[in-house]
C-alpha cells in the first residue's frame, strides 16, 4: 500500500544538498539554535496531532479502526519523544561550544520568513494533510517531495553565507537533515581551524546525560567524535539518509499514512480524529489572524495548559544548563519534568480536544497551542529563586485547575498532580537553603 504515497507525491533519487558556510563559532551556535527551534516545533506539531486522535469505539469508530488509531498514536508519540532527545542533544552541542541551551522558538504557525522558504511549521490535527506535512519535513536529504496542501512554502529562499561574513544569519536549508549535515561540517571546519581543545570549551559536567533520561545517546560531548555521534543519532532517527529511512521518522509516518488511506478507502466515512482546530485565547503580538477561543471555560483551560508548558520549559532550562544544581537536585528536576509532561500537559491537551472553541466555530474543539509568552528564553538564572518561582507558578496552576474542576471534573485530578509537583520543587528549594 506504499503506492498510495508514491502515486500522489513524486520522488527523485536523493542527491546531497550544498553545505552551508559556517566559518565562525558564533555562526555554528546560531545554526544549532535554529536546529533546536525546529526540534522543539516539530515535537509540538506531533503532540498536537497525537492528542487530536479519538480514544475509543464510543467516538464512532470500529474495533479495528480503534486499534489502528492506538497504533498511530503510539507511533507519533514515539517520534515526539525522539524529538525531545534531539532537543537535549542540541543542548549538549551548544554547551560543548561554551553557549547555553536554547528552548525558545516562534509561536505556531511560525511567522513568515522565520525559516527558509522550504520549511514551515503549523499545528494540524491528525489526517492525510498532517501526515504528508510531517513526511515533507522529515524527508531524507535530497528527496524531492511536495509539502501538504495548504502548507505550501513561501517564496524567496535565502542565499548561503560567504566566508567573509562574521555576523551570523539565517541560511537556506532544504531539509532538517541538510541543516544537521552543515552543522556537522561546521564542527569539522572549526576543529581544523582552531583545534579541538579551543572548540570544545564548555564543561562536560553541565551536559545532560543518561543519569537524567535513559537515552543511550545522551553522552557528554568533549570532542569531534562525540559531536559527530550526536548529529548522526539525530539524522538517522529523523530522516535516515545514511541508514534505512523506512525505520526513521519519514518511514514511520509513511507507514501510518499508508494504513490510514487503506482504512479510509474501505470506509470513506472513517474519521480518526476529533474536530480539533488550532486556536488561541488571544491574538499574538505580531499577528491578528487565526482562530480565537470564544468559550470562557475552554479559554481558561487553554491558559492553564500554556502555564504548565511554561513551567516545564523553566524546569528543562535548569536541567539542561546544570548551572549549580547537585546530583540530587538534577534528579528532582528530571522527575518533575517527566511529571509535568505525563500528568500535566498530556491530560490537559486531551481535555482541550473535547472542549468547544466557541460559538463562532460550531462543531470545532480546541487543542494545545504550546504558546510561548516571553522572549527570548525561559531560563531562570538564580537557583534558589528559580526553584521557588517554579513552585509558586505550579501552585497557581494547581489552584486554577481545582477551581475549573467544577465545570470540567477531570481537571480536579490534574490539579492534585500539579500541587504534588509544586510541593516537590518547593521542598527541594527549602532543603537547598540549609
CATH class of the largest domain: Mainly Alpha
Read across the widest sheet, the strand sequence of neighbours is 1-2
Cα(first) to Cα(last) distance is: 63 Å
Instruction: Indicate the CATH topology of the largest domain.
Output: Ferritin
The chain-level mean pLDDT equals 84
Order of helices and strands: HHHHHHHHEEHHHH
Strand percentage lies at: under 5%
Characteristics:
434 residues; mainly alpha; Ferritin; two-stranded parallel sheet; 12 helices; 2 strands; 1% strand; globular
What is shown here, in short?
Helices cover 53% and strands 1% of the residues. It is an all-alpha fold.
List the helices and strands and how they pair.
Elements: H1 3-8, H2 25-51, H3 63-96, H4 128-137, H5 176-194, H6 196-199, H7 224-238, H8 249-266, E1 279-280, E2 291-292, H9 296-321, H10 327-352, H11 383-404, H12 410-432
Parallel strand pairs: 1-2
Overall description:
By secondary structure, the protein is mainly α. Helix content is 53%, strand content 1%. It has helices at residues 3-8, 25-51, 63-96, 128-137, 176-194, 196-199, 224-238, 249-266, 296-321, 327-352, 383-404, 410-432; strands spanning 279-280, 291-292. Strands 1-2 form a two-stranded parallel sheet. It starts with a helix and ends with a helix.
